[in-house]
Task: inverse folding
């Protein structure tokens, strides 16, 4: 195999290896957002409720740390709010959801 072809193949494999997990995390984040019922109160992609703030650009407004706190201890952020706590989520799912929301900019 020619060196240029080997380099092109290696570059293509690297691209596949790095983009597939990102796409999978995007899909997992969306699935969590939908499965947890977030859109009952929040709008996202033009759909959902109007009770809470829209989640489309939440990553512009809040850091990952702030998003995590809002999810696991919402009464600390807003004692009179109606946001439920998601502290029951496993660390992996919570991390995926926080990362997904933080990427919404």
Result:
């Amino acid at each position: 195999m020619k060196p240029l072809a080997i380099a092109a193949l290696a570059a293509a494999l690297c691209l596949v290896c790095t983009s597939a997990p990102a796409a999978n995390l995007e899909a997992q984040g969306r699935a969590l957002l939908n499965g947890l019922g977030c859109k009952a109160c929040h709008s996202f992609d033009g759909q959902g409720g109007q009770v809470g703030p829209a989640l489309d650009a939440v990553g512009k407004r809040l850091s990952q740390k702030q998003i995590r706190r809002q999810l696991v201890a919402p009464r600390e952020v807003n004692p009179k709010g109606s946001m439920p706590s998601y502290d029951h989520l496993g660390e992996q799912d919570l991390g995926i959801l926080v990362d997904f929301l933080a990427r919404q900019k």
Q: What stands out?
A: The radius of gyration is 18 Å. DSSP finds five helices and two strands in the chain. The first strand starts at residue 43 and ends at 44. The CA atoms of residues 45 and 101 lie 12 Å apart.
